Amino acid sequence: MGEENVVTFETRYLLGVMLRNNGESEKAIKVYEKCLSVQMKVLGEDHKLTLMTLMSLGLAYDSLGNYEKASEYYERGSEAEEEVVGEKSSEYTLHRGEYRDYL
Q1: In a domain, 44, yes or no
Q2: Residue 7: predicted pLDDT
Q3: Domain boundaries, position 14
Q4: Is residue 58 part of a domain?
Q5: Is 1 inside any structural domain?
Q6: Domain tally for the chain?
Q7: Residue 83 pLDDT > 80, yes or no?
Q8: I need a surface site. Which of 5, 84, 88, 103 has the fewest CB within 10 A?
Q9: Can you tell me the distance from the alpha carbon of 92 to that of 24, in angstroms, rounded to the nearest whole number?
Q10: Rounded CA gap, 67 and 81, in Å?
Q11: CATH code, domain carrying 24
Q12: What H or E segment, with its residue span, contains residue 14?
């Protein structure tokens, strides 16, 4: 399938989620960063999968206590999400509420 195949980076994203949920945030960050670089190239920053990876990177850094780095990813994902789904979207409002302490 290759690195730029959607199934490949979706699977990689899910691996990152599993690692983070199992307390292996440092490993998850490496997986997410590789996934993000391919997503940015193939899908662009405003694609929903890319936004999910940005927010997941924020969560991973947050779990390590690196709140400054977490905030950078939350802000970046939040700004792109606002442009994609709109500020009045219930999805945007839900995510903004989840990360409001970091923005």
Answers
A1: yes
A2: 81
A3: 6-102
A4: yes
A5: no
A6: 1
A7: no
A8: 88
A9: 28
A10: 20
A11: 1.25.40.10
A12: helix 6-21
Return all residues near 78 (Cβ < 8 A) that are at least 6 apart: 95, 96, 99, 103
Write the pLDDT tens digit of every residue in 14-67.
999 999 999 999 999 999 999 999 999 999 888 888 988 999 999 999 999 999
Structure tokens at 43: 């899908």
* Distance in angstroms (rounded) separating the CA atoms of residues 70 and 103: 10
- Rounded distance between C-alpha atoms, residue 58 and residue 71, angstroms: 7
CB of 60 closer than 8 Å to CB of 32? yes
Contact 77, 49 (CB under 8 A): no
Contact indicator for 42, 4 with CB cutoff of 8 Å:
yes
The answer to whether residue 25 is domain-embedded is: yes
- State both tokens at 81: 């999400």
Residue whose tokens read 């391919």: 38
